Amino acid sequence: MTSFRFSRFMLFAGLAFIYLPMLILVIYSFNASRLVTVWGGWSTKWYAGLLDNTQLMNAVLRSLEIASYTAIAATALGTLAALVLTRIGQFKGRTLFGGMVTAPLVMPEVITGLSLLLLFVAMAQLIGWPVERGLMTIWIAHTTFCTAYVSVIVSARLREVDRSMEEAAMDLGAKPWKVFFLITLPMIAPSLAAGAMMSFALSLDDLVLASFVSGPGSTTLPMEIFSAVRMGVKPEINAIASLILLFISIITFLLWFFTRRAEEKRKKAMHKFKTYKG
C-alpha cells in the first residue's frame, strides 16, 4: 500500500512538473498588466494585440509552414527508410545505412547545424544553390533531423505487424505496391501519425538548427521569442504560446481520435481474417 501511494504521488508530481508551467503561462496570457510578474486583472487585450504585431505573426505563420512541410517530408522519407531496414534482408552497407539514418538522434544539434551550414555554403560556391539561406534550407535541415525519429517509430511498428495478411494478398496475385497501400499502410497508420506529429512539434520547437541555416527574412517563432525574451518576456509571447498550445492540443486530440478508430477497424478486420482462415 505504501509503495502504491508513493507511486501515485510521483505520478502526480511528475505531471504537475510538466503541465503546471503551461497552465501558469496560459493564465498570465490573460494578465492585464504589461509586467508579466505582476497580476493586473483579467484581460484579453494581448490576444487582440497579436493582430497588430506583424513581426510576431509572420514568424508564427513561417514556423507553421515549415513544420507542415517537414512533417510531410520526414514521414515519407522515414517510412521509406524503415521499410528498407525491416523488409529488406541483409545487403551490403546495411549497417552503415542504419547508422546514418539514426545518427541525428545522438548527434548534438550544434554539430548538425554547423555541418549543414558548411554544406550549404559549399554548395552555393560549387553549383550556385542555395543562393541565400531561408525557408528552403530550414526545411531541409528540419527534415534531415526529424526523419530519424520517424524511421525509428515506423520501424518498431513494422516489426510488430503480422505479415500473414500481406503474404495472403500476394499469394492471391496482388502486386507489392497494392499490398503496401491497401494492407501495410493502414496497419502502420498510427505510427505514421505519431511520426508526423513528432516531426511537426520538433520543427515548430527548433531553435538551434534554424539559427545556423536561416537567413534574413526567415526568422522562425523560436528565434523571434528567443531574441525577444532577452529584453524581458512580453505579454504577447504568453498569448501566442497559449494559442499554439491550444492548436497543438486540438490537432493531437483529432489525430488520437481518428487513429483509435482506424486501429479498432484494423483489429476487427484482423479478427475476421483469422476467423475465416481458421
List descriptors.
278 residues; MetI-like fold; transport; transmembrane helix
Beta-strand percentage range: under 5%
Q: Tally the helices: what do you get?
A: 12
Top CATH class: Mainly Alpha
CATH superfamily: MetI-like
Structural class by SSE content = mainly alpha
Keywords: Cell membrane, Membrane, Transmembrane, Transmembrane helix, Transport
InterPro entries: Bact_Polyamine_Transport, MetI-like, MetI-like_sf
Pfam family, one: BPD_transp_1
Subcellular location: Cell membrane
Task: Write a structural description.
The protein is an all-alpha fold and 278 residues long. The protein has a single domain, classed as MetI-like fold. 78% of the residues lie in helices and 0% in strands. α3 (54-87) packs antiparallel against α9 and α3 (54-87) packs across α11 (221-229). The protein is globular, with a radius of gyration of 23 Å.
